[in-house]
Design goal:
CATH class: Alpha Beta
Keywords: Cell projection, Cilium, Flagellum, Signal
Organism: Saccharopolyspora gloriosae
Number of helices: 4
Mean pLDDT: 85
CATH architecture: 3-Layer(aba) Sandwich
Pfam family, one: DUF3558
Oligomer: single chain
Strand content: 15-25%
Order of helices and strands: HHEEEHEEEEH
Shape: globular
InterPro entries: DUF3558
Protein name: Flagellar basal body L-ring protein FlgH
Length: about 180
């Protein structure tokens, strides 16, 4: 089950930027003059100073969220800090996108995802992408040009709320957003 979840997360990661499983080079960061006003961030955060994505969930938050896997540095499609936590109950991954992120950029590439649903996380514009019953990715625009991606896959056991893949991904993302420094 864990291996299947990891394979699905790998597939999601490759679809997140390029779609159809192909990895394409990231596009240039959108200029602030091209930001969709409906997707503008009122209280921006700054991911540029975050050198370790594993620090975006404290040990206390991981315990409360039942993230039982040890956090490990991971490779990222964005070539920025990423963290993977693979445990018995769930697999989670956090990826920083400080160079070509933001919700305007995410909306511009929405056709690259298997599915796409705009939403909100902790007062920030977000999108659920590449989701199924027990697997979900949420991209949260923490500034007009930066975003953080949270991937979630349920493995086995855990609280009943973990069965709602996107609901739980949003819950993890809300905790992550709390730990991103203000701009």
């Amino acid at each position: 089950m864990l291996t299947a979840s990891l394979l699905m997360l790998t597939a999601i990661s490759s679809c997140a930027v390029g779609g159809e499983g192909e990895q394409q080079p990231p596009q240039a960061a959108p200029s602030t003059e091209n930001i969709d006003p409906a997707l503008a961030v009122e209280n921006p955060k700054n991911l540029k100073g975050v050198a370790d994505a594993c620090q975006l969930l404290t040990p206390e938050q991981r315990t409360a969220l039942q993230v039982d896997g040890a956090p490990e540095q991971a490779d990222s499609l964005y070539k920025e800090p990423a963290c993977s936590m693979e445990g018995d109950m769930l697999t989670a991954r956090i990826e920083i996108n400080s160079n070509q992120g933001g919700m305007t950029a995410t909306h511009e590439r929405k056709d690259n995802f298997d599915n796409f649903e705009p939403t909100e996380v902790a007062g920030y514009p977000a999108a659920l992408v590449n989701f199924s019953d027990s697997l979900c990715s949420v991209i949260v625009g923490v500034s007009d040009t930066q975003s953080v991606d949270v991937y979630y896959a349920m493995n086995s056991g855990g609280a009943p709320e973990m069965n709602d893949g996107c609901g739980y991904a949003k819950k993890i993302a809300a905790e992550v957003v709390q730990n991103i420094p203000a701009a």
